[in-house]
Amino acid sequence: MTTLTIGQLARRCGISRSTLLYYEEQGLLAPARSAAGYRRYGEADVARAEQIRAWRATGMDIPAIAALLRDASHAGPVERRLQEIAAEMARLREQQEVLLRVLGKASPAGIDKAGWTALLRAAGLDDAAMERWHALFEQQAPQAHETFLRSLGLSVPEIEHIRSWSRRMGV
After folding, report:
1. With the CA atoms of 14, 86, 146 and 112 taken in that order, what torsion angle do they form, in degrees rounded to the nearest 10?
2. Domains of the chain in sequence order
3. Fewer CB near the terminus (10 Å): N or C of the chain?
């Protein structure tokens, strides 16, 4: 079995030595020790360090990563991070809208909630049909449904409300 020093692991994973020491301090990495007390990293340590680096690149914090390392099948930390990203994207879209209004420019979304509602009504959909449309969208492609609702410039509470009744409605 090939083992790596901390410097070799740092270079291989594109992580600084001090970051690896911090991960060890936080209990994310637990290298073996040589007879002289030097840290030695095996292939499992390399895979773990690369996984930690990948999760950190998504913006996940150390406690969330520690939870995932304990139980990778537990989706809670990933779901929370997705919600944080969605909320941040909504905040950024709101800021973008304000700046576009200041400049007198149109929304990048192109069509807002009122425009979509008018389009669907013109296509012959009544309220019940639009609700069924949302329920089907939520059932078949929940992430795409959320993305669509966000593109309309809806607030996070309104999006959550629409998705909630869409899930309850069933089809």
Report:
1. -120
2. 6-70 (1.10.1660.10), 76-169 (no CATH)
3. N
Distance CA 130, CA 42 (A): 56
Contact (CB, 8 A) for 36 and 2: no
Residue 41, strand partner residues: 4
On the 0-12 / 13-18 / 19+ scale of CB atoms within 10 A, 131 is middle
Secondary structure (DSSP) of 4-34:
B-HHHHHHHHT--HHHHHHHHHTTS---EE-
What is the SS3 assignment for 134? helix
- Cα dihedral sign for 128, 135, 160, 109? negative
107: exposed, middle or buried (Cβ count in 10 Å: 0-12, 13-18, 19+): middle
Spatial contact of 146 and 163, defined as CB atoms under 8 Å apart: yes
